[in-house]
Amino acid sequence: MVFGGYIASNLGHLWLLLSLAGYVVQWFGDSMDGSLARYRKIERPSYGYFIDHSCDGMANLMIVAGIGLSPYVTMNIAMVALAGYLLMSVHTFLAARVMGELRLSYLAMGPTELRLFLILLTIAMMAIEPGGDRIWTIPALDALIGFIGAALICLFIVQTLLVARTLARVDSNADR
Description:
Blueprint: H1 2-8, H2 16-40, H3 45-69, H4 75-99, H5 111-127, E1 134-135, E2 138-139, H6 140-175
Antiparallel strand pairs: 1-2
Helix pairs in contact: 1-2, 1-3, 2-5, 3-4, 4-6
């Protein structure tokens, strides 16, 4: 629904309402599946973890690709944001493996805040003309999404260096 709404927004901005409805459906489904399994006492932790995060990855690809296929953000800028998001996902899963800690929030932003941001971004898209508002010569939404993508890539680098330093200390202490 989200992907389709963004693509259909090439026909008119009211199609973005489909994307907004899709965010609600996706949020509900993503929040409900694990809770329902626990309530029914049919949890499958490894399978559930694998399927949940695999579906999240595909959903995020479709969301960002849809944004890039809309008239509001260019695909190359959308892909920078996707690269930043995926790098942070890689970091999260690697850190969970080597440090035993699954951390989903960075800089006070987690999955809920990300969804709220995307919903607000979609509402903003409805209020502005595609390519209209500009920061210098760059369309405003391209500048915003590009900045977020670059910030995520920088955050990945900083977090990777911090974890690497911690692991180096742990490994050197283990050698003693």
